[in-house]
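User: Quick sanity check before I run a bigger batch. Here is a single chain. Can you write out its predicted 3D structure?
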Amino acid sequence: MDRRGLINGLPKPIPGGDRRSARDKGTRYIRRLFHFQHMDFQFATWQMASLFYSPQKVYRNFQYRKQTKDQFARDDPAFLVLLLMWMIVSCVAFVVLLGIHFLGFFKFLLWTIFIDCVGVGLVVATIVWIICNKYLIKPSCRLTEDVEWGYCFDVHLNAFFPALIILHLFQLFFYHIVIRYDTFVSRFFGDTLFLIACAYYVYITFLGYSALPILRNTKVFLYPMAALLVLYLMSLTAGFNLCRTLVDFYHYRVM
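Assistant: Done. Predicted structure follows.
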């Protein structure tokens, strides 16, 4: 057993130990990406479904992982692999809807994966990781605990999935029927759908950080809800269809 000093009854990390540990965890995670037989896809599927009707249950498992494996972040990439598959399916659906050529499909897929999901996730996870460890961590935990960057990225992936399904798949069933027309009903339906998708992202993000016992004042993650509501009301008043604008943006970006 490592000899470590105790602070408030908790082990004091050896200098540099956290960095080595994070690097080792990241290496193992990447290595498992190439071993599908070691991934628990059934459990990852349950997590994805739970994010819609009971996201609290998903974060209870994160707490259990901390107790058993000493980390909140996922050590099984099955969720990420399934998320990539859903992004491929959604891109195929958009290609059919927008009549994009075959090469455009790959361009749209690359944008969706590396910009919309991974790129935005890297930025959001890093910003929130800094804010949590600098301002939201409890003083009693500051010397012994910290928020893992990998966990911040997992929270982003959790919050991204329902928004992806709502805006990239669900809305497509109604696009030609309702959303694409310039009527109040179309705007109301499209803007409400956009609001629900964004609200899912904010709420699941809030649940992710409120599940960490080392953080305080996690209600700040709910503050964007007010901005979303203002945006929703302004878009309805101004006759702005957010879902149709999103589809037009995707078409412009690819073409």
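Strands lie at 6-7, 10-11.

User: Great, the batch can go ahead then.
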